[in-house]
Amino acid sequence: MSDISSDLVLFNELVEILINEEKKHPVADRIDSNKLYESIDLSLNASPMVDDEFKTVLKDVLVSTPKTATNLFFNQLFGGRQSKAVLGDLLAVMLNNSMYTYKVAGPQVGIEQEIIRQSCQLIGYGSQSNGTFPTGGSMSNYMALIMARDAKDPKCKLEGMTKPLVVYTSEESHYSNAKNASFAGIGRNNIRYIAADSQGKMIPAKLEEQIIQDLNDGCIPTYLNCTAGTTVLGAFDPIHALADITEKYGIWLHVDGAYSGSVIFSDTYKHLVDGIERSDSFSYNAHKMLGTPMTCSIILVKDKKHLHNSFNNEAEYLYQTDGDDFNLGKTSFQCGRRNDALKFWTLWKSVGTQGLKQIVDQQFELADVAREYVSQHSDYTLYSYDDSISICFNYKNIDPAALCTALYESQITVVGFGAFKEETFIRLVTINANNEKLDILNFFQVLEEFAAKTPDLLKVKEELQEIA
Predict the structure, then answer these.
(1) Which of 12, 103, 293, 426 is deepest in the core (most CB within 10 A)?
(2) Phi-psi region of 98 (alpha: psi -120 to 50; beta: other; left: phi over 0)
(3) Cross-strand pairs, 447
(4) DSSP states of 96-165 as a string?
(5) What DSSP string describes 302-314?
(6) Domains and CATH numbers, the chain
(7) Residue 352: which H helix or E strand, with range?
(8) What is the pLDDT of residues 377-413, one digit of tens each?
(9) CA 147 to CA 152: how far, in whole Å?
């Protein structure tokens, strides 16, 4: 078997191959899913593979995997690569600490808590606040819902649901809310989806109407999921107006900032989450706007007692030294938990809060470039709005799903499509802060050149219209 030194040499060789490949071919050659196992040897066998063959297989896997860090990847709500964060993630892998106790994590506990402390200060939470690093935005939303449930129905943890709880979220919110209501025992049928306005923002008046109706029906309003950056338009719900309502009716207010909550680092765009200090919990993903490797999610709670009440469980075999403030497993959902904080800390430590601000601001500047281009060219139709890094548009009346799929299958660029109020469009996300203005303009150029060479795309649109 190889030792760690030789494997690190191999790792460096493979990284160099990957980086060179990203420069030469920003979009990976697509392997049809039906031909995947014929194209690359992914088999697991009884006999070991010799080193040269092993290296060749690893190279094939790297070259064929979608390249999310290049200047032509605009498909997901993440992209790019912050090198100092990558360094932290590699160190976390080498250290291989679990974050449930100080005994096994040591100073890594302090690193996680420092990020949480600074984040709480940024949003105006007080001295009783705290937080943790869940496995992603969906889990952040789930933890918030569990805390809201337990605060409203304290017997639930021992006896199960004893009250008819109902929860609220925008019709434009993340799909995890439906799953989470099911997991929490509240039930999908007890979610109330509140209408959004023409810009994708939740309408406060509609929320209050629904709450009053539920109270009249004998239900107990419990939890509101508010969104800072909806998945399609990137819209920000009006927190102050919604907080007025949740405070009036005693409802837990959670702000899901998984996509765009990192605006808390920007002096220019922090106003988009005005009122965040009035929330009971808030989450954001550093693996999105801040470019750390997947996953790096943070949930903050105004009163840390709720984390302890909902997630603590004594275990003498585990918690044997130090106090509760240093044994993080008592306030997290899972037991064994990888160190997701170190990569964010190495980034934040190296560039400072000012550097994080610049990362966030760069994405909005790139979004402005894209919106301006779309607005100034008559072949485009714009569907999204300012103060968002999601630019939604259509080109020459070409079916957006057909165009995005063809661009992907032809290895031209990777971009997705979305829908809002019965309109479907291309959704360009400028979340890669490593990009520059020229990269955004290049995206439109390659799209236009591809469409010009592929006239059949127009026929697809016409055929779909005939079917409809």
Answers:
(1) 426
(2) beta
(3) none
(4) ---TT-HHHHTHHHHHHHHHHHHHHHHHT--TT-EEE--SSHHHHHHHHHHHHHHHH-TTHHHH---S-E
(5) SSTHHHHHHH---
(6) 99-341 (3.40.640.10)
(7) helix 341-376
(8) 999 999 999 999 999 999 998 999 999 999 999 999 9
(9) 9
